Amino acid sequence: MTSLEDRILYEDNHLIIVNKLCGELSQGDETGDETLADRVRAYLKEKYSKPGNVYLGIPHRLDRPTSGVMVYAKTEKALVRLNEAFRGDGVHKTYWAIVDALPPAREEVLTHYIVRDAKANKSTAFRKEIRGSKKAVLKYTLLSSSQRYHLLGIELYTGRHHQIRAQLRAIGLHIKGDLKYGAARSNSDGGICLHAREIKFIHPVRKEVMTVTAPPPHDALWDFFAASLDQSSAETAPESCL
Predict the structure, then answer these.
(1) What average pLDDT does the segment 178-187 reach?
(2) What is the C-alpha to C-alpha distance for residues 104 and 208, in angstroms, rounded to an integer?
(3) Contacts of 75 by beta carbon, 8 Å cutoff, 6+ apart
């Protein structure tokens, strides 16, 4: 596993922002498995020789099979303000998703109504509002294509449970590796090809605009798409993975 220090995207006295790997828990759950938060606390304790417990606030989460930008607060003041930003409209999040079919349009705003099944840990997106549903809105843009897969850039306008996964499935698209939402097969690492690419927000203390970008995981397909967006460093990947 890549060392935590190599995955730190930003750190100051108030925040630490890390590139989460597929399969890592962003915070604790019923499995009791070690979390990214545990690793961050251990890193801070060792780096700053802190006695006792290390404070770490968690203002948001990412699904376990998802990778990308994860923000933690190092102070209570920062956490309170970040919580307000994440609950409101103070955070702008962009994702990358690799899907198995061309979307119906090159760019589109999707509006659905999400119903969460807590027992199955799964959500379903409906076209019309139904009892118990919550409105879910996102915008996707087709960024690049290979022979078999397509890279979407996704802007979230609401933050619902499994929103991207459920809304894409509702229009006939499946994120590579996402068996729960209809993908044909799993990925070798057990993750899915959904990556929290960028986050933009106002720093909770310094009040400056923060934009933090996370490089996607390294494998042949992700590397191909990343290179396809940077023509000066275009690469090719084996046909079997494209």
Answers:
(1) 95
(2) 38
(3) 13, 14, 55, 57, 205
| Contact present, 95 and 144 (Cβ < 8 Å) | no
> Facing residues of 138 across strands?
110, 156
Residues 6+ apart with CB under 8 A from 15: 71, 72, 73, 74, 78, 203, 204
70-113: pLDDT as tens digits = 999 999 999 999 999 999 889 999 999 999 999 999 999 999 99
Q: Residue 237: its pLDDT value, please?
A: 44
Give the C-alpha separation, 166 to 114, whole Å: 8
pTM of the model: 0.92
Nearest to 180 by CA among 123, 138, 221: 123
Domains in the chain: ranges and CATH: 5-230 (3.30.2350.10)
Going by DSSP bridges, is the β-strand pair 15-20/91-99 parallel, antiparallel, or unpaired? unpaired
SS3 category, 198: strand
Nearest to 162, CA basis, from 242, 238, 90, 97: 97
Alpha-carbon gap, residue 209 to 32, rounded angstroms = 36
With a CB cutoff of 8 Å and minimum separation 6, the contacts of 84 are: 90
Residue tagged 């993750």 (tokens):
191
Buried b / exposed e along 120-133 (16+ C-beta atoms within 10 A)? eeebbbeeeeeeeb
What's the CA gap between 84 and 73, in Å, rounded?
13
β-strands 122-126, 134-145 pairing: unpaired
